Amino acid sequence: MKNIEQVIFEGKRVIVRVDFNVPLDENFNITDDTRIRAAMPTINKVINDGGRLILMSHLGRPKKNPDEKYSLKHIINHLSKVVGKEVAFADDCMKASDKVAAMQNGDVLLLENLRFYAEEEGKVRGIEKGEEGYDEAKKALKESQKEFTKTLASYADYYINDAFGTAHRAHASTALIADYFDADHKMYGFLMGKEVEAVNKVMKDIKRPFTAIMGGSKVSTKIDIIENLLTKVDNLILCGGMTYTFKKALGGNIGKSICENDKLDLALSILDKAKEKGVNLVLAVDAVVADDFNNNANTMIVDPMDIPEAYEGMDIGPKTRVLFGDVIKNSKTILWNGPCGVFEFDNFSNGSRAIAEAIVEATKNGAFSLIGGGDSVACVNKFNMADQVSYVSTGGGALLEAIEGKELPGIAAIK
Ligand code: AMP
């Protein structure tokens, strides 16, 4: 594979898979254009080189073709403003060859939502798995997916994947298309390159001690990640709602705290595995508990093994803030996924803030810190600390699958 910086795209047609799956309000105004801005380094590189830039993306989950609500035409004006030139639009991603042929150096063309076609995802529409006709439909779709992919590839001399957010999907535009380009004509975009580098720093080239902080509400949704991290980390801080499943499994009284009663054995086996592998697994030693699930509820600080009947755990307590903070500040590699309390309520955000502060301090002292996966990103943004950590991932599901140890199709296809 080539590095995007090694190529001069002048006069070349370059198709870039971006993630423009942006949130829109009821009038189709973009409410957050982070994803568009994140693709700008790659977009600028191609335009400034004098390349002919063809952008392709999905938007939402359309189920038919066309599907007005999910049309990428809604983002054209905003995209043109951000790019600084008029972006042309091909209202059918399968019928864009004339528009591509008419492009001049430096031009930008956006293709209509790839997911208007079932071929993009390769998922049969209208028939459920197991129903009559599904197998035939799947077979036919596999065939037409080849044509779909070939048509997209035919538009360009180079393929760039800059959509880390969909890198865990083996879709036509994120993975299959790469087969139509040789190693010198396919590459990661700048955003994807940064994401891949960040994942490598926590999965392969690890500087120790390595601490992972896993929070959020449930242990069941994080089990594959926790199992894989147990083979990599020195310290594993488990916090958030899942704390109480562990505390109950250890014989504690957890009051009204959220708990997955069918995961008590799993919690104990995680504790055993950590011991076996010599991982320092750290759980909260005190908790801020509340008599109601709201910001102004009455609170107390108690031992999470002994929570009064009418109370529930909402955040870590002051002793735990220090305990977690010390582990984090002594680390050289840090991965954070999931808040350690109900951070959406200000009165229960102190624990998550303390974690963010400790990560910022460790980063200042030379640690590499990666924040990723939904709510921890929202946390660092809420505390205005996103620019004080090493990297904030843009890919929720993709990042989590990478941390589970899976090879992402979008990354593998380029390699
Ligand atoms: P997840 O999507 O699994 O990462 O969970 C994130 C959510 O977990 C956030 O909305 C937090 O409010 C929630 N959460 C964190 N700690 C707790 C807790 N002690 N009780 C209930 N929810 C929590």
Describe this structure as you would to a colleague.
The chain has 415 residues and is of the alpha/beta class. It is 35% helix and 15% strand. The protein contains 15 helices and 17 strands. The protein has helices spanning 34-38, 40-49, 76-83, 97-101, 118-121, 134-154, 190-203, 223-229, 243-249, 264-277, 318-329, 350-364, 375-382, 396-403, 409-414; strands at 13-17, 52-56, 88-90, 108-111, 158-161, 186-188, 210-214, 235-238, 253-254, 280-282, 287-290, 299-302, 306-307, 312-316, 333-337, 368-371, 391-392. It has a six-stranded parallel sheet with strand order 3-4-2-1-5-6. The protein has a six-stranded parallel sheet with strand order 10-8-7-15-16-17, with helices on both faces. Strands 12-11-14 form a three-stranded antiparallel sheet. Helix 12 (350-364) links the parallel strand 15 and strand 16 (368-371). Helix 9 packs across helix 10 (264-277). It is elongated, with a radius of gyration of 24 Å. The mean pLDDT is 97. The site of adenosine monophosphate has 17 residues, from strand 14.
Short description:
With 415 residues, the protein is an alpha/beta fold. The chain has helices at residues 34-38, 40-49, 76-83, 97-101, 118-121, 134-154, 190-203, 223-229, 243-249, 264-277, 318-329, 350-364, 375-382, 396-403, 409-414; strands at 13-17, 52-56, 88-90, 108-111, 158-161, 186-188, 210-214, 235-238, 253-254, 280-282, 287-290, 299-302, 306-307, 312-316, 333-337, 368-371, 391-392. The longest helix has 21 residues, at 134-154.
